[in-house]
Amino acid sequence: MGSLIHAVTLDKDKCKGCTNCIKHCPTEAIRVRDGKAKIIDERCIDCGECIRICPHHAKTAITDSLEEIKKFRYPVAIPAPSLYGQFKGNVSVDKIISGLYGLGFFKVWEVARGAEIVSKVTERYLKEHDLPKPVISSACPTVMRLIRIRYPELVDHILPVDSPMEVAAYMVKEELAAEGYAREDIGVFFISPCAAKFTIVKNPLGKEKSNVDGVLAISDIYGPLLEKIKEEKMNKVLQKSTSAGIGWAISGGESRLIKDRRHISVDGLTNVTRVLEDAMMGKLKEVDFIEALACSGGCVGGPLTVENPFMAKERISKLSEGITGELPQVSAELADGFVYDKPITPQNVLRLDEDMVKAIKKMGEIEEITEDLPGLDCGACGAPTCRALAEDIVRGKADELDCIIKLRENVSGLAERMVDLAKKMPPSMNQYEKRER
Amino acid sequence: MTEGKSEITPIELFFEIERGDFVRAGEASSKIKKKLLRLGFTGSTIRCAAIATYEAEMNIVIHSLGGSLKVKIYPEKVVLVAKDEGPGIPDVALAMKEGFSTAPEQVREMGFGAGMGLPNMRNCADEFEIESREDVGTTVTMVLYKGG
Question: Which of A350, A360, A364 has the CB atom closest to B37's CB atom?
Fold first, then answer.
Protein backbone atom coordinates (compact mmCIF):
# COMPACT_ATOMS: atom_id res chain seq x y z
CA MET A 1 0.00 0.00 0.00
CA GLY A 2 1.56 3.23 -1.16
CA SER A 3 1.38 6.49 0.69
CA LEU A 4 -2.05 7.95 0.83
CA ILE A 5 -2.75 11.23 -0.87
CA HIS A 6 -5.09 13.10 1.40
CA ALA A 7 -7.56 15.81 0.73
CA VAL A 8 -7.72 17.13 4.27
CA THR A 9 -4.57 19.09 5.08
CA LEU A 10 -3.29 21.84 7.26
CA ASP A 11 -2.46 25.41 6.37
CA LYS A 12 0.48 25.83 8.74
CA ASP A 13 0.46 29.62 8.64
CA LYS A 14 -3.11 29.77 9.85
CA CYS A 15 -2.77 27.09 12.55
CA LYS A 16 -2.49 28.61 16.02
CA GLY A 17 -1.74 25.30 17.67
CA CYS A 18 -4.95 25.30 19.69
CA THR A 19 -6.40 21.90 20.43
CA ASN A 20 -9.89 22.27 19.02
CA CYS A 21 -9.38 19.89 16.12
CA ILE A 22 -7.75 17.06 18.07
CA LYS A 23 -10.79 16.89 20.30
CA HIS A 24 -13.21 16.59 17.43
CA CYS A 25 -11.39 14.10 15.26
CA PRO A 26 -13.40 10.85 15.30
CA THR A 27 -10.35 8.69 14.59
CA GLU A 28 -7.94 10.59 16.87
CA ALA A 29 -5.83 11.31 13.83
CA ILE A 30 -4.51 14.72 14.87
CA ARG A 31 -1.77 15.70 17.29
CA VAL A 32 -0.41 19.15 18.05
CA ARG A 33 3.37 19.20 17.72
CA ASP A 34 5.67 22.21 17.84
CA GLY A 35 2.71 24.51 18.00
CA LYS A 36 1.04 23.16 14.88
CA ALA A 37 -1.57 20.49 14.27
CA LYS A 38 -0.32 17.42 12.50
CA ILE A 39 -2.57 14.96 10.71
CA ILE A 40 -1.66 11.29 10.94
CA ASP A 41 -2.39 10.39 7.33
CA GLU A 42 -3.07 6.71 7.71
CA ARG A 43 -5.71 7.39 10.34
CA CYS A 44 -7.46 10.27 8.59
CA ILE A 45 -10.78 9.32 7.03
CA ASP A 46 -11.32 12.69 5.35
CA CYS A 47 -14.55 13.32 7.19
CA GLY A 48 -13.88 17.06 7.33
CA GLU A 49 -14.83 17.48 11.01
CA CYS A 50 -11.61 19.42 11.60
CA ILE A 51 -12.37 21.69 8.65
CA ARG A 52 -15.72 22.48 10.22
CA ILE A 53 -14.40 22.99 13.73
CA CYS A 54 -11.17 24.93 13.16
CA PRO A 55 -11.77 28.52 14.33
CA HIS A 56 -8.81 29.75 12.28
CA HIS A 57 -9.75 28.00 9.04
CA ALA A 58 -6.37 26.30 9.06
CA LYS A 59 -7.80 22.99 7.96
CA THR A 60 -8.50 22.83 4.28
CA ALA A 61 -9.16 20.27 1.63
CA ILE A 62 -6.97 19.96 -1.40
CA THR A 63 -9.01 19.93 -4.55
CA ASP A 64 -8.26 20.92 -8.11
CA SER A 65 -8.62 24.48 -9.33
CA LEU A 66 -10.93 25.58 -12.09
CA GLU A 67 -7.80 26.35 -14.14
CA GLU A 68 -7.16 22.62 -14.40
CA ILE A 69 -10.04 22.16 -16.82
CA LYS A 70 -8.07 24.05 -19.45
CA LYS A 71 -5.63 21.19 -19.64
CA PHE A 72 -8.23 19.21 -21.53
CA ARG A 73 -9.72 19.95 -24.92
CA TYR A 74 -13.10 18.67 -23.82
CA PRO A 75 -13.58 19.29 -20.11
CA VAL A 76 -16.69 17.69 -18.66
CA ALA A 77 -18.44 18.69 -15.44
CA ILE A 78 -20.18 16.01 -13.44
CA PRO A 79 -21.98 17.92 -10.68
CA ALA A 80 -23.01 16.19 -7.45
CA PRO A 81 -26.76 16.51 -6.90
CA SER A 82 -26.00 18.42 -3.69
CA LEU A 83 -24.96 21.35 -5.91
CA TYR A 84 -28.62 21.85 -6.77
CA GLY A 85 -29.41 22.78 -3.19
CA GLN A 86 -26.80 25.54 -2.92
CA PHE A 87 -28.65 28.46 -4.50
CA LYS A 88 -31.16 30.84 -3.03
CA GLY A 89 -34.33 31.73 -4.82
CA ASN A 90 -35.72 29.82 -7.72
CA VAL A 91 -32.56 28.71 -9.45
CA SER A 92 -33.57 25.73 -11.55
CA VAL A 93 -31.39 22.73 -12.26
CA ASP A 94 -31.40 23.85 -15.92
CA LYS A 95 -29.96 27.20 -14.89
CA ILE A 96 -27.25 25.60 -12.78
CA ILE A 97 -26.26 23.31 -15.64
CA SER A 98 -26.14 26.16 -18.11
CA GLY A 99 -24.04 28.09 -15.59
CA LEU A 100 -21.56 25.22 -15.62
CA TYR A 101 -21.41 25.44 -19.42
CA GLY A 102 -20.76 29.13 -18.94
CA LEU A 103 -17.68 28.30 -16.85
CA GLY A 104 -16.13 26.66 -19.88
CA PHE A 105 -17.19 23.06 -19.67
CA PHE A 106 -17.77 21.30 -22.94
CA LYS A 107 -20.35 18.98 -21.48
CA VAL A 108 -22.27 18.51 -18.25
CA TRP A 109 -23.36 15.05 -17.17
CA GLU A 110 -25.30 14.90 -13.92
CA VAL A 111 -24.11 12.60 -11.15
CA ALA A 112 -27.80 12.30 -10.20
CA ARG A 113 -28.17 10.19 -13.37
CA GLY A 114 -25.22 8.11 -12.23
CA ALA A 115 -27.07 7.63 -8.96
CA GLU A 116 -30.12 6.34 -10.80
CA ILE A 117 -27.95 3.79 -12.58
CA VAL A 118 -26.34 2.79 -9.27
CA SER A 119 -29.79 2.21 -7.79
CA LYS A 120 -30.55 -0.17 -10.64
CA VAL A 121 -27.23 -1.94 -10.33
CA THR A 122 -27.73 -2.27 -6.56
CA GLU A 123 -31.17 -3.80 -7.02
CA ARG A 124 -29.71 -6.36 -9.41
CA TYR A 125 -26.68 -7.08 -7.27
CA LEU A 126 -28.70 -7.66 -4.12
CA LYS A 127 -30.99 -10.02 -5.99
CA GLU A 128 -28.15 -12.11 -7.36
CA HIS A 129 -25.75 -12.14 -4.45
CA ASP A 130 -26.05 -13.16 -0.88
CA LEU A 131 -24.08 -10.58 1.03
CA PRO A 132 -23.95 -10.80 4.82
CA LYS A 133 -26.67 -8.69 6.37
CA PRO A 134 -26.96 -5.81 6.81
CA VAL A 135 -25.48 -4.72 3.51
CA ILE A 136 -23.77 -1.34 3.85
CA SER A 137 -23.85 1.22 1.07
CA SER A 138 -20.53 2.12 -0.55
CA ALA A 139 -21.64 5.61 -1.54
CA CYS A 140 -19.82 7.50 1.22
CA PRO A 141 -16.02 7.26 0.97
CA THR A 142 -15.55 8.42 4.55
CA VAL A 143 -17.75 5.65 5.90
CA MET A 144 -15.83 3.16 3.76
CA ARG A 145 -12.53 4.36 5.25
CA LEU A 146 -14.03 4.26 8.72
CA ILE A 147 -15.11 0.66 8.23
CA ARG A 148 -11.74 -0.36 6.84
CA ILE A 149 -9.93 1.17 9.80
CA ARG A 150 -12.25 0.56 12.71
CA TYR A 151 -14.66 -2.19 11.67
CA PRO A 152 -12.60 -4.77 9.75
CA GLU A 153 -15.24 -7.36 10.56
CA LEU A 154 -17.76 -5.43 8.48
CA VAL A 155 -15.81 -5.03 5.21
CA ASP A 156 -17.63 -7.90 3.56
CA HIS A 157 -20.94 -6.16 4.29
CA ILE A 158 -20.03 -3.32 1.94
CA LEU A 159 -21.95 -3.25 -1.32
CA PRO A 160 -19.21 -3.67 -3.96
CA VAL A 161 -20.76 -1.27 -6.43
CA ASP A 162 -19.26 1.90 -7.92
CA SER A 163 -20.34 5.29 -6.65
CA PRO A 164 -22.63 7.54 -8.69
CA MET A 165 -19.62 9.77 -9.39
CA GLU A 166 -17.64 6.88 -10.93
CA VAL A 167 -20.63 5.72 -12.94
CA ALA A 168 -21.30 9.21 -14.28
CA ALA A 169 -17.65 9.65 -15.27
CA TYR A 170 -17.64 6.32 -17.05
CA MET A 171 -20.91 6.99 -18.87
CA VAL A 172 -19.94 10.40 -20.17
CA LYS A 173 -16.55 9.18 -21.35
CA GLU A 174 -18.19 6.32 -23.21
CA GLU A 175 -20.79 8.63 -24.70
CA LEU A 176 -18.23 11.11 -25.97
CA ALA A 177 -15.91 8.38 -27.22
CA ALA A 178 -18.81 6.90 -29.18
CA GLU A 179 -19.40 10.31 -30.72
CA GLY A 180 -15.84 10.26 -31.94
CA TYR A 181 -13.98 12.38 -29.37
CA ALA A 182 -10.52 11.18 -28.47
CA ARG A 183 -10.43 9.78 -24.93
CA GLU A 184 -7.23 11.58 -24.02
CA ASP A 185 -8.90 14.91 -24.81
CA ILE A 186 -11.74 14.31 -22.37
CA GLY A 187 -11.24 15.44 -18.77
CA VAL A 188 -14.00 14.65 -16.31
CA PHE A 189 -14.32 16.92 -13.25
CA PHE A 190 -16.48 16.10 -10.28
CA ILE A 191 -18.13 19.13 -8.68
CA SER A 192 -17.88 18.01 -5.09
CA PRO A 193 -19.41 18.77 -1.69
CA CYS A 194 -16.95 16.33 -0.18
CA ALA A 195 -13.24 16.23 0.63
CA ALA A 196 -13.09 12.46 0.76
CA LYS A 197 -14.04 12.25 -2.92
CA PHE A 198 -10.71 13.80 -3.82
CA THR A 199 -8.89 11.15 -1.81
CA ILE A 200 -10.88 8.29 -3.29
CA VAL A 201 -10.28 9.53 -6.84
CA LYS A 202 -6.54 9.49 -6.12
CA ASN A 203 -6.67 6.18 -4.23
CA PRO A 204 -9.63 4.31 -5.72
CA LEU A 205 -11.33 1.47 -3.89
CA GLY A 206 -12.43 -1.65 -5.68
CA LYS A 207 -10.96 -0.39 -8.97
CA GLU A 208 -7.48 0.07 -10.36
CA LYS A 209 -8.10 3.58 -11.60
CA SER A 210 -10.81 6.20 -11.27
CA ASN A 211 -12.61 7.54 -14.33
CA VAL A 212 -12.56 10.98 -12.74
CA ASP A 213 -9.72 13.30 -13.77
CA GLY A 214 -10.23 16.07 -11.27
CA VAL A 215 -12.30 17.16 -8.28
CA LEU A 216 -13.51 20.75 -7.88
CA ALA A 217 -14.91 21.96 -4.57
CA ILE A 218 -18.39 23.44 -4.72
CA SER A 219 -17.11 26.17 -2.39
CA ASP A 220 -14.33 27.07 -4.85
CA ILE A 221 -16.47 27.38 -7.95
CA TYR A 222 -19.49 28.84 -6.16
CA GLY A 223 -18.62 32.49 -6.81
CA PRO A 224 -17.84 32.20 -10.53
CA LEU A 225 -20.78 29.86 -11.03
CA LEU A 226 -23.17 32.26 -9.34
CA GLU A 227 -22.01 35.00 -11.71
CA LYS A 228 -22.68 32.81 -14.71
CA ILE A 229 -26.07 31.79 -13.41
CA LYS A 230 -27.03 35.45 -12.99
CA GLU A 231 -25.86 36.26 -16.53
CA GLU A 232 -27.61 33.31 -18.03
CA LYS A 233 -30.65 34.38 -19.98
CA MET A 234 -31.49 31.28 -21.94
CA ASN A 235 -33.91 28.79 -20.55
CA LYS A 236 -33.16 25.57 -22.33
CA VAL A 237 -34.14 22.28 -20.78
CA LEU A 238 -30.86 20.69 -19.83
CA GLN A 239 -31.79 18.57 -16.86
CA LYS A 240 -31.83 14.88 -17.58
CA SER A 241 -31.88 13.56 -14.05
CA THR A 242 -35.07 12.75 -12.21
CA SER A 243 -36.15 13.25 -8.63
CA ALA A 244 -34.90 9.73 -7.90
CA GLY A 245 -31.27 10.58 -8.54
CA ILE A 246 -31.37 14.06 -7.03
CA GLY A 247 -32.62 12.61 -3.77
CA TRP A 248 -29.23 10.94 -3.26
CA ALA A 249 -27.91 14.30 -2.05
CA ILE A 250 -29.75 13.88 1.24
CA SER A 251 -29.86 11.14 3.80
CA GLY A 252 -32.49 8.57 2.84
CA GLY A 253 -32.29 9.32 -0.87
CA GLU A 254 -30.41 6.18 -1.72
CA SER A 255 -32.29 3.77 0.50
CA ARG A 256 -35.76 4.91 -0.53
CA LEU A 257 -35.03 3.42 -3.96
CA ILE A 258 -34.27 0.01 -2.50
CA LYS A 259 -37.48 -1.87 -2.93
CA ASP A 260 -38.94 -4.59 -0.76
CA ARG A 261 -36.10 -4.56 1.70
CA ARG A 262 -35.86 -3.18 5.18
CA HIS A 263 -33.43 -0.36 5.27
CA ILE A 264 -32.23 2.37 7.54
CA SER A 265 -30.50 5.59 6.65
CA VAL A 266 -28.11 7.16 9.07
CA ASP A 267 -26.16 10.39 8.78
CA GLY A 268 -23.55 12.19 10.84
CA LEU A 269 -20.44 10.34 11.99
CA THR A 270 -21.52 9.89 15.60
CA ASN A 271 -24.72 8.23 14.46
CA VAL A 272 -22.92 6.17 11.83
CA THR A 273 -20.49 4.91 14.45
CA ARG A 274 -23.35 3.91 16.69
CA VAL A 275 -25.05 1.96 13.93
CA LEU A 276 -21.82 0.25 12.89
CA GLU A 277 -21.16 -0.73 16.51
CA ASP A 278 -24.59 -2.34 16.66
CA ALA A 279 -24.12 -4.04 13.29
CA MET A 280 -20.85 -5.46 14.56
CA MET A 281 -22.54 -7.02 17.59
CA GLY A 282 -25.09 -8.64 15.35
CA LYS A 283 -27.87 -6.39 16.69
CA LEU A 284 -29.16 -5.32 13.28
CA LYS A 285 -30.00 -8.64 11.70
CA GLU A 286 -33.49 -7.58 10.72
CA VAL A 287 -32.09 -4.77 8.59
CA ASP A 288 -31.24 -5.59 4.98
CA PHE A 289 -29.55 -2.39 3.95
CA ILE A 290 -27.82 0.51 5.65
CA GLU A 291 -27.33 3.81 3.93
CA ALA A 292 -24.64 5.52 6.01
CA LEU A 293 -23.44 9.03 5.28
CA ALA A 294 -20.72 10.72 7.30
CA CYS A 295 -22.06 14.25 6.98
CA SER A 296 -25.05 15.48 8.89
CA GLY A 297 -28.08 15.49 6.60
CA GLY A 298 -26.19 13.63 3.90
CA CYS A 299 -23.98 15.05 1.14
CA VAL A 300 -25.67 18.45 1.43
CA GLY A 301 -23.83 18.73 4.75
CA GLY A 302 -20.45 18.16 3.10
CA PRO A 303 -17.49 20.27 4.25
CA LEU A 304 -17.03 21.79 0.78
CA THR A 305 -20.54 23.15 0.48
CA VAL A 306 -21.53 26.77 0.90
CA GLU A 307 -25.19 26.84 1.84
CA ASN A 308 -26.61 26.03 5.25
CA PRO A 309 -27.11 22.27 5.03
CA PHE A 310 -30.65 22.43 6.35
CA MET A 311 -31.69 24.91 3.68
CA ALA A 312 -29.93 22.82 1.05
CA LYS A 313 -31.74 19.79 2.35
CA GLU A 314 -35.07 21.52 2.10
CA ARG A 315 -34.43 22.41 -1.52
CA ILE A 316 -33.27 18.93 -2.43
CA SER A 317 -36.34 17.50 -0.70
CA LYS A 318 -38.51 19.61 -2.96
CA LEU A 319 -36.58 18.67 -6.08
CA SER A 320 -36.71 15.01 -5.23
CA GLU A 321 -40.32 14.84 -4.07
CA GLY A 322 -42.14 11.78 -5.29
CA ILE A 323 -40.22 9.52 -7.54
CA THR A 324 -41.19 10.64 -10.99
CA GLY A 325 -39.86 8.95 -14.05
CA GLU A 326 -38.60 5.43 -14.32
CA LEU A 327 -35.14 4.41 -13.30
CA PRO A 328 -33.03 3.93 -16.44
CA GLN A 329 -32.75 0.52 -18.01
CA VAL A 330 -29.32 -0.90 -17.34
CA SER A 331 -28.12 -3.89 -19.33
CA ALA A 332 -26.67 -6.83 -17.44
CA GLU A 333 -23.32 -6.28 -19.09
CA LEU A 334 -23.17 -2.64 -18.11
CA ALA A 335 -24.33 -3.41 -14.58
CA ASP A 336 -21.62 -6.02 -14.10
CA GLY A 337 -19.05 -3.47 -15.18
CA PHE A 338 -20.00 -1.31 -12.21
CA VAL A 339 -19.23 -4.04 -9.72
CA TYR A 340 -15.84 -3.82 -7.99
CA ASP A 341 -12.94 -5.76 -9.50
CA LYS A 342 -11.03 -5.87 -6.25
CA PRO A 343 -12.33 -6.81 -2.81
CA ILE A 344 -12.38 -4.19 -0.07
CA THR A 345 -9.79 -5.07 2.52
CA PRO A 346 -9.44 -3.97 6.13
CA GLN A 347 -6.62 -1.60 6.99
CA ASN A 348 -5.49 -2.09 10.51
CA VAL A 349 -3.68 1.15 11.20
CA LEU A 350 -4.46 1.06 14.91
CA ARG A 351 -2.47 -2.08 15.63
CA LEU A 352 0.10 -1.56 18.37
CA ASP A 353 2.62 -4.01 17.01
CA GLU A 354 2.98 -6.53 14.20
CA ASP A 355 3.90 -9.06 16.84
CA MET A 356 0.90 -9.97 18.97
CA VAL A 357 3.03 -10.78 22.03
CA LYS A 358 4.59 -7.34 21.87
CA ALA A 359 1.20 -5.78 21.20
CA ILE A 360 -0.20 -7.32 24.36
CA LYS A 361 2.78 -6.07 26.36
CA LYS A 362 2.29 -2.60 24.93
CA MET A 363 -1.39 -2.62 25.77
CA GLY A 364 -0.53 -3.54 29.33
CA GLU A 365 1.85 -0.60 29.45
CA ILE A 366 -0.79 1.71 28.01
CA GLU A 367 -3.19 0.67 30.75
CA GLU A 368 -0.59 1.36 33.41
CA ILE A 369 0.36 4.75 32.04
CA THR A 370 -3.28 5.73 31.55
CA GLU A 371 -3.97 4.88 35.20
CA ASP A 372 -1.13 7.13 36.19
CA LEU A 373 -2.16 10.10 34.04
CA PRO A 374 -4.56 12.69 35.50
CA GLY A 375 -7.52 11.68 33.31
CA LEU A 376 -8.36 15.28 32.54
CA ASP A 377 -8.28 14.75 28.79
CA CYS A 378 -7.23 18.39 28.57
CA GLY A 379 -5.34 18.10 25.32
CA ALA A 380 -2.44 20.31 26.39
CA CYS A 381 -0.02 17.51 25.57
CA GLY A 382 -1.20 17.64 21.98
CA ALA A 383 -3.05 14.33 22.16
CA PRO A 384 -6.86 14.25 22.39
CA THR A 385 -7.11 12.15 25.56
CA CYS A 386 -4.90 10.84 28.34
CA ARG A 387 -5.30 7.38 26.87
CA ALA A 388 -4.18 8.62 23.46
CA LEU A 389 -1.11 10.16 25.11
CA ALA A 390 -0.41 6.86 26.86
CA GLU A 391 -0.64 5.11 23.52
CA ASP A 392 1.68 7.68 21.92
CA ILE A 393 4.18 7.20 24.76
CA VAL A 394 4.17 3.44 24.26
CA ARG A 395 4.49 3.88 20.50
CA GLY A 396 7.53 6.03 21.23
CA LYS A 397 5.98 9.19 19.88
CA ALA A 398 5.51 11.13 23.10
CA ASP A 399 6.91 11.46 26.57
CA GLU A 400 5.20 11.28 29.94
CA LEU A 401 6.40 14.78 30.73
CA ASP A 402 4.39 16.07 27.76
CA CYS A 403 1.59 16.00 30.32
CA ILE A 404 1.57 19.36 32.09
CA ILE A 405 0.11 17.87 35.25
CA LYS A 406 2.88 15.28 35.34
CA LEU A 407 5.41 17.97 34.63
CA ARG A 408 4.01 20.05 37.47
CA GLU A 409 4.23 17.08 39.84
CA ASN A 410 7.83 16.61 38.81
CA VAL A 411 8.67 20.26 39.22
CA SER A 412 7.08 20.46 42.65
CA GLY A 413 8.90 17.28 43.70
CA LEU A 414 12.09 18.83 42.48
CA ALA A 415 11.36 22.09 44.27
CA GLU A 416 10.80 20.26 47.55
CA ARG A 417 14.03 18.43 47.09
CA MET A 418 15.82 21.69 46.33
CA VAL A 419 14.52 23.21 49.55
CA ASP A 420 15.78 20.17 51.43
CA LEU A 421 19.12 20.38 49.73
CA ALA A 422 19.41 24.08 50.41
CA LYS A 423 19.21 23.34 54.12
CA LYS A 424 22.12 20.95 53.91
CA MET A 425 25.49 22.09 55.13
CA PRO A 426 28.87 20.37 54.95
CA PRO A 427 29.75 18.49 58.19
CA SER A 428 32.73 20.78 58.76
CA MET A 429 30.35 23.67 59.17
CA ASN A 430 27.63 24.26 61.69
CA GLN A 431 24.92 21.66 61.28
CA TYR A 432 22.51 23.20 63.78
CA GLU A 433 20.78 20.94 66.23
CA LYS A 434 20.82 18.02 63.82
CA ARG A 435 24.45 17.27 64.52
CA GLU A 436 24.17 17.80 68.20
CA ARG A 437 21.58 15.10 68.62
CA MET B 1 -6.09 -26.75 31.15
CA THR B 2 -3.08 -25.21 29.41
CA GLU B 3 -2.73 -21.51 29.95
CA GLY B 4 -1.16 -20.97 26.52
CA LYS B 5 2.43 -21.50 25.53
CA SER B 6 3.60 -17.95 26.03
CA GLU B 7 4.49 -16.69 29.46
CA ILE B 8 3.11 -13.30 28.73
CA THR B 9 0.60 -11.75 31.08
CA PRO B 10 -2.68 -11.69 29.22
CA ILE B 11 -4.78 -8.56 28.95
CA GLU B 12 -7.57 -8.93 31.46
CA LEU B 13 -10.86 -7.12 31.32
CA PHE B 14 -13.71 -7.29 33.76
CA PHE B 15 -17.22 -5.96 33.34
CA GLU B 16 -20.03 -5.99 35.86
CA ILE B 17 -23.37 -6.49 34.22
CA GLU B 18 -26.57 -5.47 35.91
CA ARG B 19 -29.88 -7.15 35.55
CA GLY B 20 -32.28 -5.22 33.34
CA ASP B 21 -29.70 -2.70 32.16
CA PHE B 22 -30.55 -2.73 28.47
CA VAL B 23 -28.98 0.64 27.89
CA ARG B 24 -25.48 -0.39 28.80
CA ALA B 25 -25.68 -3.85 27.29
CA GLY B 26 -23.22 -3.88 24.43
CA GLU B 27 -20.71 -1.64 26.17
CA ALA B 28 -18.47 -4.52 27.13
CA SER B 29 -18.67 -5.93 23.63
CA SER B 30 -17.70 -2.59 22.16
CA LYS B 31 -14.74 -2.14 24.50
CA ILE B 32 -13.43 -5.64 23.91
CA LYS B 33 -13.64 -5.10 20.19
CA LYS B 34 -11.56 -1.92 20.41
CA LYS B 35 -8.84 -3.74 22.31
CA LEU B 36 -8.74 -6.65 19.88
CA LEU B 37 -8.40 -4.25 16.98
CA ARG B 38 -5.41 -2.53 18.57
CA LEU B 39 -3.83 -5.85 19.35
CA GLY B 40 -4.01 -6.82 15.70
CA PHE B 41 -6.71 -9.50 15.75
CA THR B 42 -8.41 -9.99 12.41
CA GLY B 43 -11.99 -9.44 11.31
CA SER B 44 -13.36 -12.92 11.97
CA THR B 45 -12.08 -13.12 15.55
CA ILE B 46 -13.26 -9.60 16.27
CA ARG B 47 -16.67 -10.33 14.82
CA CYS B 48 -17.07 -13.48 16.90
CA ALA B 49 -15.84 -11.84 20.08
CA ALA B 50 -18.24 -8.95 19.54
CA ILE B 51 -21.23 -11.17 18.87
CA ALA B 52 -20.45 -13.66 21.64
CA THR B 53 -19.92 -11.01 24.29
CA TYR B 54 -23.00 -9.07 23.27
CA GLU B 55 -25.15 -12.19 23.47
CA ALA B 56 -23.61 -13.03 26.83
CA GLU B 57 -24.29 -9.53 28.11
CA MET B 58 -27.89 -9.74 26.93
CA ASN B 59 -28.40 -13.13 28.57
CA ILE B 60 -27.25 -11.74 31.89
CA VAL B 61 -29.36 -8.60 31.50
CA ILE B 62 -32.51 -10.53 30.59
CA HIS B 63 -32.36 -13.79 32.52
CA SER B 64 -30.22 -13.37 35.59
CA LEU B 65 -30.02 -11.32 38.74
CA GLY B 66 -26.77 -9.85 37.53
CA GLY B 67 -23.31 -11.06 36.73
CA SER B 68 -20.05 -10.34 35.12
CA LEU B 69 -17.99 -10.83 32.03
CA LYS B 70 -14.33 -11.66 32.30
CA VAL B 71 -12.08 -11.54 29.30
CA LYS B 72 -8.52 -12.70 28.93
CA ILE B 73 -6.67 -11.90 25.76
CA TYR B 74 -3.65 -14.01 24.87
CA PRO B 75 -1.60 -13.74 21.69
CA GLU B 76 -3.25 -16.83 20.28
CA LYS B 77 -6.69 -16.80 21.82
CA VAL B 78 -9.41 -14.90 23.60
CA VAL B 79 -11.10 -16.45 26.62
CA LEU B 80 -14.50 -15.13 27.63
CA VAL B 81 -16.20 -16.11 30.86
CA ALA B 82 -19.74 -14.92 31.47
CA LYS B 83 -20.95 -15.68 34.95
CA ASP B 84 -24.25 -14.84 36.51
CA GLU B 85 -26.29 -15.39 39.60
CA GLY B 86 -29.89 -16.31 39.13
CA PRO B 87 -32.33 -19.05 38.32
CA GLY B 88 -29.91 -21.08 36.21
CA ILE B 89 -31.00 -23.13 33.24
CA PRO B 90 -33.03 -26.22 34.15
CA ASP B 91 -32.51 -27.96 30.82
CA VAL B 92 -29.28 -26.89 29.19
CA ALA B 93 -29.69 -29.13 26.15
CA LEU B 94 -33.07 -27.56 25.42
CA ALA B 95 -31.71 -24.05 25.92
CA MET B 96 -29.01 -24.74 23.38
CA LYS B 97 -31.63 -25.45 20.69
CA GLU B 98 -32.03 -22.68 18.15
CA GLY B 99 -35.28 -20.85 18.65
CA PHE B 100 -35.93 -22.07 22.17
CA SER B 101 -36.51 -19.19 24.52
CA THR B 102 -37.66 -18.62 28.06
CA ALA B 103 -37.53 -14.86 27.74
CA PRO B 104 -40.56 -13.20 29.31
CA GLU B 105 -43.21 -11.80 26.99
CA GLN B 106 -42.29 -8.15 27.62
CA VAL B 107 -38.69 -8.86 26.63
CA ARG B 108 -39.72 -10.64 23.46
CA GLU B 109 -41.95 -7.77 22.52
CA MET B 110 -38.84 -5.64 22.57
CA GLY B 111 -37.35 -7.89 19.93
CA PHE B 112 -35.06 -9.83 22.25
CA GLY B 113 -35.25 -13.42 23.34
CA ALA B 114 -35.45 -15.00 19.92
CA GLY B 115 -33.84 -18.11 21.30
CA MET B 116 -30.64 -17.54 19.42
CA GLY B 117 -28.42 -16.25 22.19
CA LEU B 118 -26.74 -19.44 23.34
CA PRO B 119 -26.68 -21.08 19.90
CA ASN B 120 -25.10 -17.92 18.45
CA MET B 121 -22.47 -17.97 21.15
CA ARG B 122 -21.72 -21.63 20.55
CA ASN B 123 -21.57 -21.16 16.79
CA CYS B 124 -19.09 -18.34 17.20
CA ALA B 125 -16.75 -19.90 19.70
CA ASP B 126 -14.07 -22.48 19.01
CA GLU B 127 -14.59 -23.92 22.46
CA PHE B 128 -17.83 -23.58 24.35
CA GLU B 129 -18.69 -24.75 27.81
CA ILE B 130 -21.81 -24.11 29.83
CA GLU B 131 -22.39 -24.91 33.44
CA SER B 132 -25.63 -24.16 35.14
CA ARG B 133 -27.11 -24.89 38.50
CA GLU B 134 -30.73 -24.20 39.24
CA ASP B 135 -31.27 -21.28 41.62
CA VAL B 136 -27.53 -20.61 41.70
CA GLY B 137 -26.52 -19.36 38.30
CA THR B 138 -24.87 -20.03 35.01
CA THR B 139 -21.30 -19.82 33.78
CA VAL B 140 -20.49 -19.83 30.09
CA THR B 141 -16.88 -20.18 29.00
CA MET B 142 -15.90 -19.48 25.41
CA VAL B 143 -12.53 -19.67 23.74
CA LEU B 144 -11.84 -18.06 20.38
CA TYR B 145 -8.58 -18.88 18.64
CA LYS B 146 -6.85 -16.22 16.62
CA GLY B 147 -7.87 -16.31 13.01
CA GLY B 148 -10.36 -19.08 13.82
Answer: A350
